[in-house]
Design brief:
By secondary structure, the protein is α/β, with parallel strands linked by helices. It has a single domain, classed as Glutaredoxin (3-Layer(aba) Sandwich), CATH 3.40.30. 27% of the residues lie in helices and 20% in strands. The strands form 2 sheets. The protein has a 5-stranded mixed sheet with strand order 5-4-3-6-7. The protein is globular, with a radius of gyration of 15 Å.
């Protein structure tokens, strides 16, 4: 699968969220943080998305719109929609994952840097997003920051299950501004 690099242009698309709303990638005036998460019940994803939701005001103020893609069904994700007030897109066949070169690998679970977040995600007071495990245990996360002109400003392909941008890293990439060149 080809990887998307900084400076590459992505094909503009209209994605349908799990609530049947349409979301445009790229955003016509701002930035899109396109996140590829694992399956919806993933404790890593649960922990990470809670950090995004907790700081969503800062993210929005920086001109960033969040779009989160799961390789789970919309039916499973809809059960937990109130917990994820973001644009969530179901991609159970992993079509979009393949287009962006987002992979699965045994190293997803084997890297020691992912063990503590997994424990925190499982034992937290928040329940997992769902029990959908469509080939997800070996999935790797990925993040893309896309400008209004279809250009990828930054990308990160995770090397283990909890290897994604933190909110601080995301905001640092933009300098807190939506007008990043």
């Amino acid at each position: 699968m080809p990887k998307i690099d900084v400076g590459d242009r992505v094909t503009p698309r209209v994605l349908t969220t799990i609530t049947s709303e349409q979301t445009h990638t790229p955003d016509p005036i701002g930035l899109v943080h396109l996140q590829f998460r694992r399956y919806a019940g993933c404790p890593y994803c649960n922990l990470h998305l809670r950090s995004i939701v907790a700081r969503s005001d800062e993210i929005t103020a920086a001109g960033i719109r969040e779009v989160v893609i799961f390789h789970s069904t919309a039916e499973k994700l809809l059960k937990y929609n109130d917990e994820i007030p973001l644009a969530v897109v179901a991609d159970p066949t992993k079509r979009i994952y393949r287009e962006f070169g987002v992979e699965s690998s045994p190293r997803a679970l084997l890297h020691p840097r992912g063990w503590l977040p997994a424990i925190r995600g499982v034992v937290s007071k928040h329940r997992p997003l769902s029990g959908d495990h469509i080939s997800g245990h070996l999935g790797l996360p990925a993040d893309f920051l896309i400008n209004h002109d279809d250009r990828v400003l930054a990308s990160k392909y995770g090397v283990h299950t909890f290897d994604q941008w933190s909110v601080d890293e995301l905001l640092q990439l933009t300098g807190g501004r939506a007008d990043t060149p």
